[in-house]
Amino acid sequence: MTIQTTTHLNFLGDARQALEFYQSVFGGHLVVNTYADFGMPAHVPGADKVVFGLVGAENGFRIMGYDIPGQTDGSIAGGGLTRRENGTTVTDQALFVSIGSDSLDELQGYWDALVVGATIVELLAASAWSAGFGMLTDRFGVTWSFSVTA
To which H or E segment does residue 17 belong? Predict the structure, then answer.
């Protein structure tokens, strides 16, 4: 028996833009179904928002997202701030998305794409516990933690 976990992000109106961005970074296929696709009349505000979204790539990357009904403020639900302070990570966010690879070069490519419009929490560089570690909060408010796992 096997099990797979997939991070599911809850957005306040811009799930489609976020999922399209993540597909551009990680590749793979994108599935987006709107509330209208599942029967909400098209004239109802929010019918064009995402009720089910998925990015899945051959490299193992998977992420899901949807727009919380009635929310149109953009960004991610439960956002907040993540920062480094006195050598520690301080946050009021509920979760981070962690990316691991055995290659710093592979991580660097994903970092370079996600960092556009992002806030860097910790530069991607060698650390005491990894040949590469870094954190950033992307333009959608999602904090990503990068680690070389080898």
Answer: helix 15-26
Torsion angle of C-alpha atoms 131, 139, 49, 99, degrees rounded to 10: 0
For the chain, domains (ranges, CATH) are 7-67 (3.30.720), 82-148 (3.30.720.110)
Q: What is the pLDDT of residues 30-79, one digit of tens each?
A: 999 999 999 999 999 899 999 999 999 999 999 999 999 988 877 888 88
pTM of the model: 0.92
Q: How far apart are CA 123 and CA 115, in angstroms?
A: 10
- CA gap 108, 128 in Å, rounded: 18
70 vs 67: CA distance, rounded Å: 8
**Dihedral sign (CA 3, 137, 57, 8):** positive
Please name the residues in contact with 63: beta carbons below 8 A apart, sequence gap of 6 or more. Answer: 6, 7, 8, 9, 19, 22, 54, 55, 97
